[in-house]
Q: What sequence folds into this?
């Protein structure tokens, strides 16, 4: 397993397989990806995964854009299932799951995260620019039926829009045996961040008071998991969070085949696809090592920063 300059091992690859999306969520960070000029084929994705699994990567997350917009998404999943890969999961808006969940499961997808910020149809339209809430709810049922479990619901908490809906979402998720992920809004596209960002401290205090147990997912950015009398809630707090960065163990891959060391930056990408296309596997391996080498916590501890400035 590769360890970066800050002592963090790399066990996961988050692959954005397309920049296209059928939603236009006003806050979307588009996985921090610049516009793409090329798109990886399933075989190329498979080749890259084979290379990174040789370096100890065990978990693959497929995302987008909307990954289910790709006609060949089942092939992408099948290509991702490789020796050494323990889990292939996907983040989706769920709209196409009613047609695709079973096939994806048969191709080797382990589980899904489904983005759902609200159960209120009007708010849903305001956030996503679509009237697809009923379709997403069908998608959730399809994922459960296809045993893409545990299904996690991704809820970005937005001040002035859905922050009062957290309890309703906990009930909705727990009644169906799902895990609710509360996600702090990340400031990447600048749109409406000030208006809708909220720190999740108060929500976390309330969860802590109600929890029968609280766990920390060390290998997942030190996220807290609150086990409630009914249901489970995970909290993702990336903003100005040194622990989030200190416990980050994954690299990203853009739709056009660049390794991306950090969600928040685009000035340190490493081209791996060109090497794979040229059949230069040694070059592709070097690209992976280079990307790991370029990793750096985005939010650093003050003391650590002082150290860095001193040398
Ligand atoms: N289209 C898919 C979906 O809707 O899940 C996958 C791509 S989407 C960019 C992946 C996840 O990022 C979603 O759960 C979405 O809510 C989250 N996300 C997007 N922009 C965000 C932001 N500015 N802050 C926090 N989370 C964000």
A:
């Amino acid at each position: 397993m590769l360890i970066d300059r800050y002592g963090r091992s790399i066990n996961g690859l988050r692959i954005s397989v397309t920049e296209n999306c059928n939603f236009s969520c006003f806050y979307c960070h588009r996985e921090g990806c610049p516009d793409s000029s090329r798109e990886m084929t399933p075989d190329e994705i498979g080749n890259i995964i084979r290379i990174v699994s040789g370096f100890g990567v065990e978990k693959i997350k497929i995302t987008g854009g909307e990954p289910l917009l790709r006609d060949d998404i089942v092939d992408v999943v099948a290509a991702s299932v490789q020796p050494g890969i323990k889990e292939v999961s996907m983040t989706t808006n769920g709209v196409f799951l009613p047609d695709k969940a079973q096939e994806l499961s048969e191709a080797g997808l382990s589980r899904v995260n489904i983005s759902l910020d609200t159960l209120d149809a009007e708010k849903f339209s305001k956030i996503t620019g679509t009237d697809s809430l009923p379709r997403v709810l069908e998608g959730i049922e399809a994922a459960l039926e296809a045993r893409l479990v545990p299904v996690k619901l991704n809820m970005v908490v937005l001040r002035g829009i859905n922050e009062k809906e957290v309890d309703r979402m906990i009930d909705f998720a727990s009644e169906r045996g799902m895990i609710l992920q509360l996600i702090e809004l990340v400031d990447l596209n600048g749109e409406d961040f000030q208006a809708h960002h909220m720190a999740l401290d108060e929500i976390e205090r309330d969860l802590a008071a109600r929890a029968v147990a609280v766990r920390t997912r060390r290998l997942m950015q030190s996220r807290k998991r609150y086990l409630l009398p009914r249901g489970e809630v995970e909290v993702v707090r990336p903003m100005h969070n040194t622990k989030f960065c200190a416990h980050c163990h994954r690299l990203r891959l853009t739709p056009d085949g660049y390794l991306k060391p950090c969600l928040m930056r685009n000035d340190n990408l490493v081209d791996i696809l060109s090497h794979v296309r040229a059949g230069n596997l040694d070059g592709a391996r070097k690209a992976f090592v280079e990307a790991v080498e370029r990793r750096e916590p985005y939010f650093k501890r003050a003391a650590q920063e002082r150290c860095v400035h001193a040398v």
Q: What stands out?
A: The pocket of S-adenosylmethionine is lined by residues 21, 27-29, 31, 63-64, 66, 91-93, 115, 154, 156, 183, 185-186, 188 (CB under 6 Å). The chain has one domain: 12-310. Confidence is low (pLDDT under 50) at residues 305-311.
